[in-house]
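> @MW can you paste both from yesterday?
MW: sure, first one:
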Amino acid sequence: MTRVLYPGSFDPIHKGHVELVETAANVFDDVLVAAVGNPDKGGGVFTLDERAEVISEVFAHLPNVRTMVHTNLVVTLALEQEADFIIKGLRAVSDFESELQMAQINKEISGVETMFLPSTSSSSFIASKYVREIARFGGDVSSMVPGPVLARLHAKLGGSD
């Protein structure tokens, strides 16, 4: 059985994330999606627990996907959960540059390898920070996020479906 860990802030989870998890669920036996507290990413919309709830709701149709929260090093969680790999999505060359360095340091301190999965061009422009900003100003993010996320954004920030 191959278990992978997909960590991220997921604030909020968007269709690019969904694409990656659905791909991973088709390839790997067990996919752990971890909403991770990131002190470098301030100004979030949802708490870690709220993110975990909506992630679980979004992936309820995939029996091999589990959701959790974590506030320590990602490699600590990967080792605790006996993950074979950490997976990360790549949208652009700039993602590769930063993610490669993170993958190398993670490998050095834990021995856990990172696998990169590219996004499709239809979702490569989506980033949680843009979704948050557009939603805060009342813009339409319905094409970028799953329905449960949209409903929660509207409940938190105002707006309608």
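MW: second:
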Amino acid sequence: MTEQIVIDRRYRGPERSGNGGWSAGLVAEKFGLPAEVTLRRPPPLDRPLDVLRDDGRLELCDGHTVVAEAVAAPALDDLHPPRVVSLDEAAEASARFAGFDAHLFAGCYVCGPGRAEGDGMRIFPGPLGDDVLAAVWTPHESVAVDGAVRPAAVWAALDCPSGWAGELSEARPAVLGRLAVDIRGDVRVGEPVVVLGWPVEDLPKKFVAASAVVDADGTTLAVARATWVRIDPSSWS
């Protein structure tokens, strides 16, 4: 039988398509880790998408349309958080989250302020006074597998903080185009962690940013490098 993935509406980013990080993470779970996933189309919600494998590559397809593709991740060994950030610092930064004032996708599973506690992840990355953004995340049991957070949820947590690090706004909207993730340790359910985002490169039509999940002791549990594509917001449903 053909392998399939269904992206439940709960895990939306925009109102009618999947959160980029969660969707990419589901693809990565099928492909194997570490992985790099490129999103070719807005991931559809609530319908089966076919998983096709071919010579070291995995494609997620909606009929004949390729929605996403996964390959082995490039080496991310040199990717580290720019500095140590405590839980208290991250909590203070979250209070300055730009999305509280204006958010193009307020129902986003990861960073949408319109999502209730226990429903959305409610990761609100705010500025620390330099180029680094930080938030506190306490993973909910709904994303647990044997007490650890499933990879798709770690991918999701790494998604939006990288986007906000590229100065997302209603005037300069963007969507995730590509995400490469290296999970280095278990993220545990119920244990607060710091999620960081910081810019890498800003280009006319896209930007590159990085993100990390760090535990309370300062151990890096996961890192990501993301490419975001600037869009006309009316073009992405």
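> thanks! The chain has a mean pLDDT of 93.
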